[in-house]
Design a protein that fits this description.
The chain has helices spanning 6-19, 23-34. The model has no long low-confidence stretch (mean pLDDT 88). By secondary structure, the chain is mostly helical. This is Nif11 domain-containing protein.
């Protein structure tokens, strides 16, 4: 597996922000690229 540099990760997140992705969506996509499992978040009822 080829590793991403810090700069490549930042460029990816910048592109995701330009597309209008939420922080959660962008980080989940980045985790997928890096081959790590992003934990599922549970939203507490209010």
């Amino acid at each position: 597996m080829e590793e991403m540099t810090k700069e490549e990760m930042q460029r990816f997140l910048n592109r995701e922000a330009e597309k209008g992705s939420s922080e959660y969506e962008a980080l989940k996509a980045l985790a997928g690229i890096l081959g790590i499992k992003f934990p599922e978040l549970e939203i507490a009822d209010k």
